[in-house]
Amino acid sequence: MRTGLAEQLRHLDGASYGRYKSLGGAWQMAGFTLEVVRGQADPYAPPARLALHVPAEHAGFPGELRDSAVRRRALAGYLVRRAAAVAGRGPVHIDHGGQEVLDRSSCRIGDGIGIGSGGGSGDDAAGAVTVRLGVELPGRGRRIDGRAAEEVLCRLLPRVVERALRYASLDAAEVRRFVDTVEDTDVLRRSLEPRGLVAFVADGAVLPRRSGVDDRPLAGPATVPFASPDAFRVEVDLPNAGRVTGMGVPEGVTLIVGGGFHGKSTLLRALEAGVFDHVPGDGRELVASRGDTVKIRAEDGRRVERVDVHAFVSHLPSGADTADFSTDNASGSTSQAASLVEAVEAGAGTLLIDEDTAATNLMIRDARMQALVAKDREPLTPFVDLVRSLHRDHEVSTVLVMGGSGDYMDVADQVIMMDAYRPSDVTERAHELARVPTGRHAEADSFPPVTHRSPDPASVDSRVRGRSRVKSRGTDALAFGDQHVDVRAVEQMPDRGYVTGAGFAMELLVRRGHLDGGRTLAEALDLLDRDLARGAAELLTVHEDDCAVPRRHEIAAALNRLRSLRIKR
Ligand code: ADP
Ligand code: MG
């Protein structure tokens, strides 16, 4: 362990910038260790990577705040937000995330077990806190600014540790509330399946966001808090919040209808986000959907590699085999068909679809159109004829927003109407209407079993000239090896760290040999899930970049969008 960082920095003042390299290693500071993981080569290079290691005795968090994986994730989520607030805007960058409380590499709480053979010590010691961050090392031109560096490394970072990472300096009630809130959402989510529900939205929840680019809750008198309709009201007992009431969305096919601008998409987006836990004050703390809920949408232009879409697409003008369908440029309908089949392949249990982002011709085909265009001319089988079988035969539920067509009334188990942001149960009325014949006939009676695919690991290469390159571009894209993976249509990726995590996970699928050319993607994801459950983020944090631990569904989604992906014959 090195000592005397301040003297070393004063000594380096005015030296050429490259000499920052000499800082590498671990420095003993007052109460913590400052590790320089990677230096910064020049003033314009990416910031240096540092880690703050705070031993459990110094951090001082009581056991009940960290005695389960969920609580450790929540505590870390709280601490990293505090740390970022103390660090402020400036040369120190801490990946604190947004409204979602994710397992992230930027802050970890030791569990006393660890994943390595030497587990249980150092960062893994119970209650130890590790924060990983980026620091722009100060320079004057191409020279080291030793004074400024001393200010950042020897004063600002110790302040972060003292004010943000020690229990004694924090508002104990606020920490507790954060941890309790996240734990409640987690318990709520786990309680869904035993009750036959796919989602729950608590009374009083605030679903709308401030804007399309601001994920914080809408505030002000115009905001209508959620109020459950009698027919779907359920009660849930949570460990911290106690008894809460709200709308339970049952398994099966759920249709959300209502006029334009009445809050349909907002409700669906809340269910989309319900696979994640949210910070106190978010408004969606007690909105949860099952962990295997996946949003599906159209995405023309995407690549598709050997997906069996014949349930949706019977034949194509090109004569291509739709049971083994590949394209570099999918249409709206074929992209959505492929994404849906891929989601089921990767283990989705609930699908969310919004008319706003769906391909109409894949969703519906009404009686008149059936009469005008004969079946042998129309390759598409609309989802309306498959959605029931998806539940009946495959246990995959669907929640669908559809304000523009009544044909789904025939197949919906329950129909929720949004009216001025207030949901009501219109199932009975919808079923009455469905008894009046429309002249429409079903075009299919069952959704076939999905064909599982075995990806070729050689086609999933994260290296460029021998070195790993995995980097996110916001939530829009992932640089993976020499490729650009467009993930704009993968809507359940909350932040850039999550996208990076999906990239690291793809790399890990190959590096660990889970993808071996023989195993199916689903089998490989099972193995990776097992790894991640054991070692969580540690497996992903061997990298220097900030990341969050992704779900298997987004890992699969990113992989499926990799243009180099090849499936073994
Ligand atoms: P729809 O999908 O039915 O057309 P949206 O869900 O897109 O409607 O909502 C329309 C607008 O209403 C959006 O600007 C949204 O933020 C706002 N909104 C949605 N729910 C509420 C609510 N509960 N209170 C206030 N405004 C809301
Ligand atoms: Mg809408």
Give a structural overview.
The chain has 569 residues and is an alpha+beta fold. It folds into three domains: 5-170, no CATH class; 250-451, Rossmann fold (3-Layer(aba) Sandwich), CATH 3.40.50; 457-560, no CATH class. Helix content is 28%, strand content 21%. Strands 1, 2, 3, 4, 5 and 6 form a six-stranded antiparallel β-sheet that branches. A six-stranded mixed β-sheet has the order 16-19-20-14-21-22, sandwiched between helices. A hairpin with a 4-residue loop joins strand 1 and strand 2. Helix 1 runs antiparallel to helix 4 and helix 12 (496-511) crosses helix 14 (552-560). The longest helix has 21 residues, at 172-192. The mean pLDDT is 95. It binds adenosine-5'-diphosphate and magnesium ion (MG).
Describe the secondary structure blueprint for this structure.
Layout: H1 5-12, E1 25-28, E2 33-38, E3 48-54, H2 56-59, H3 69-87, E4 92-93, E5 107-109, E6 129-135, E7 139-140, E8 143-144, H4 146-164, H5 172-192, E9 197-202, E10 209-211, E11 214-217, E12 233-238, E13 242-250, E14 253-258, H6 264-273, E15 287-289, E16 293-296, E17 304-307, E18 325-327, H7 332-345, E19 350-354, H8 360-363, H9 367-372, H10 387-394, E20 397-401, E21 414-419, E22 422-425, H11 427-434, E23 463-464, E24 467-468, E25 470-473, E26 477-480, E27 483-486, H12 496-511, H13 521-535, H14 552-560
Parallel strand pairs: 14-20, 14-21, 16-19, 19-20
Antiparallel strand pairs: 1-2, 2-3, 3-6, 4-6, 5-6, 7-8, 9-13, 9-15, 10-11, 12-13, 17-18, 21-22, 23-24, 25-26, 26-27
Helix pairs in contact: 1-4, 3-4, 3-5, 12-14
The chain binds adenosine-5'-diphosphate and magnesium ion (MG).
Residues 264-265, 356 line the site of magnesium ion.
